[in-house]
Inverse folding.
């Protein structure tokens, strides 16, 4: 296999972090978006590569549903969310004709598409490239790790929810990381309790502490517990708030930055930075 092209396109990317989850719907994409915005807030230049072929939700979360992929001489150009071009996004969703279409390709075609996303996007200089992967461990994950092999990603952030089933699934994810020698940067427990909007009391709707327990059990870094935030749901569901594209994105970034979860994600971003030390 020839990784030359991957290396060229990623040659100015300092750190590559994969975001993984054992099962769908645990908040992997929303964690990716919020982590990226927190890294941006810490002065980093960030890219999000959304290769979740089952449900590419990053464009919706950043109000980029109608964007198309543009080709330049160096390769595909990421869509920049902010006016300073410090947060770029490339998503499989940009290839789909509309937001209700899902990808029903078979294995080899999926692998080809993932390869193209890893090799054909020209990111330019980036501090962090966050890769939002499909849920579970599949051939697609193997393809991603294989194509990035020579590039040596810094590691994976595992996202789980407190329910045991999800923790069991992440355990499989952990085995996958060990098998393919992908370091685990740490675990995030998402939807960890619900903080009341009125009295700030945190109620554990599901069993709690699964992520922390698993981190301890496996000697891994626990990056943090993120509660359910109803404002986040509103924000993610109401991304069509403004007609003007640039304002819409700036407004969304502002909303994420001023959300209740922002301080928690800022701490997580700092932990990720310290795990991915510059050479
Ligand atoms: N901390 C949170 N508080 C409230 N809602 C959340 C939180 N995290 C995620 N959600 C909501 O849960 C839903 C699933 O989140 P998301 O799409 O990020 O999950 P995912 O793991 O990427 O899913 P998929 O399997 O489709 O890739 C979304 O509607 C999102 O708004
Ligand atoms: S947590 Fe407190 S304020 Fe919130 S609903 Fe319950 S009792 Fe009311």
């Amino acid at each position: 296999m020839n990784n030359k092209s991957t290396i060229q396109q990623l040659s100015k990317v300092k750190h590559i972090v994969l975001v993984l989850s054992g099962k769908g719907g645990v908040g992997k994409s929303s964690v990716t978006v919020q982590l990226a915005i927190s890294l941006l807030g810490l002065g980093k230049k960030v890219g999000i590569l959304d290769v979740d072929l089952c449900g590419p939700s990053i464009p919706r979360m950043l109000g980029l549903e109608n964007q198309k992929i543009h080709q330049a001489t160096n390769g595909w150009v990421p869509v920049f969310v902010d006016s300073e071009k410090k947060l770029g996004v490339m998503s499989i969703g940009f290839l789909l004709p509309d937001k209700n279409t899902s990808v029903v390709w078979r294995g080899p075609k999926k692998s080809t598409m993932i390869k193209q996303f890893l090799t054909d996007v020209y990111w330019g200089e980036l501090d962090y490239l966050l890769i939002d992967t499909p849920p579970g461990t599949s051939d697609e994950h193997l393809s991603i790790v294989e194509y990035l092999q020579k590039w040596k990603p810094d590691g994976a952030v595992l996202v789980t929810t407190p329910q045991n089933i999800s923790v069991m699934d992440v355990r499989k994810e952990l085995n996958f990381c060990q098998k393919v020698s992908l370091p685990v940067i740490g675990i995030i427990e998402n939807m960890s309790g619900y903080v009341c909007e009125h009295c700030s009391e945190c109620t554990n709707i599901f069993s709690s502490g699964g992520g922390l327990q698993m981190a301890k059990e496996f000697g891994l870094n626990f990056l943090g517990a993120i509660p359910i935030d109803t404002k986040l749901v509103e924000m993610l569901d109401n991304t069509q708030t403004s007609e003007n594209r640039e304002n819409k994105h700036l407004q969304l970034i502002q909303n994420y930055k001023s959300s209740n979860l922002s301080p928690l994600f800022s701490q997580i971003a700092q932990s990720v930075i310290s795990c991915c030390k510059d050479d």
